[in-house]
Amino acid sequence: MESKEFGLLFVQKMLNLEHLHYGLHSKGEKLNFDNFKNAQQKYSNFLISHIEKAIKKNKKASILDVGCGFGSNLKILKNKNYNIQGLVPSKAMAQHSKKVSGAKVYCDMFENFDARKKYDLVFFSESYQYVDIDQSFKQLEKILKKDGKIVICDFFVRDNSKGLSKIGGGHKMGLFYEKLKNTNYKIHTEIDITENIISNIDFMNEVINDRVISPAKLLDEYMMKKQPLSYKIFKFAFKNRLNKIAHKSDKDRNGKNFGKDKVYKLIVLK
Ligand SMILES: C[S@@+](CC[C@H](N)C(=O)[O-])C[C@H]1O[C@@H](n2cnc3c(N)ncnc32)[C@H](O)[C@@H]1O
């Protein structure tokens, strides 16, 4: 299992989440344990309203959810009687999303996906950042019908980013526009939702500090007293993983810096 996938599964299990994407909130609203799931639902509603608009609510239109996670968007679209399929590289996620949605789910990376049919719309819900940008357009041209549509809801790296937020992920925004020029697709809708996403970073910090770092510090003190030698060996062996977790609690990893480095957009291509 890749470390990014481990991170997603860890957060999903810890917070008992259905969705694996950020939550959409009003500008300036703070997210907490009480309103986070609601904000995630708002994100899905927003994304799905644009999907429906792009296919003009045609229930026969064939849709593919790339990087479907635990199948939360698949489930909503299937319940609305849309002709939807999912794709995800993780076996555990593929099995789970199939079970919760009743939709056909392929277990593969998008770059390697050998589609058995052509789709009217392909969408990425916070999963575009994981796919290779060149391969993505080649694949999209192969698997979409002639007048097919693409919906991407994800964050990108601002071209003037200084890496302040210390949060990884996202393709360079300018690179995306450059690559897009070499395709047959044009931007139909582009909405900047960065201001409605940034509280997620502060909330995630709270989760990591309160639910991971604080108990880990307590355990650390206890083990240092009880088993100093074997515990030091354990810490040395897992040095890299432990450093990664410590990095996630860095004070510069906050919503304000995220907004300086990243831009979160909903993009519809036709
Ligand atoms: C942040 S999660 C989003 C999950 C889901 N779309 C949602 O909105 O809840 C990113 C998803 O992308 C998937 N993913 C990562 N690399 C991928 C790839 N190369 N091809 C397809 N999916 C990928 C992950 O397994 C994960 O399910």
> How far apart are the first and last residues' alpha carbons, in Å?
35 Å
Q: So, CATH architecture of the largest domain?
A: 3-Layer(aba) Sandwich
CATH superfamily of the largest domain: Vaccinia Virus protein VP39
Classify the secondary structure makeup into a structural class: alpha/beta
Largest sheet: 7 strands, mixed
In DSSP terms (H or I, runs of 4 or more residues), the helix count works out at 10
Strand arrangement within the widest β-sheet reads 3-2-1-4-5-7-6
* Mean pLDDT over all positions: 90
The radius of gyration over CA amounts to 20 Å
What is the CATH top level name of the largest domain? Alpha Beta
Helical coverage, percent range: 40-55%
The name CATH uses for the topology of the largest domain is Rossmann fold
Number of domains: 2
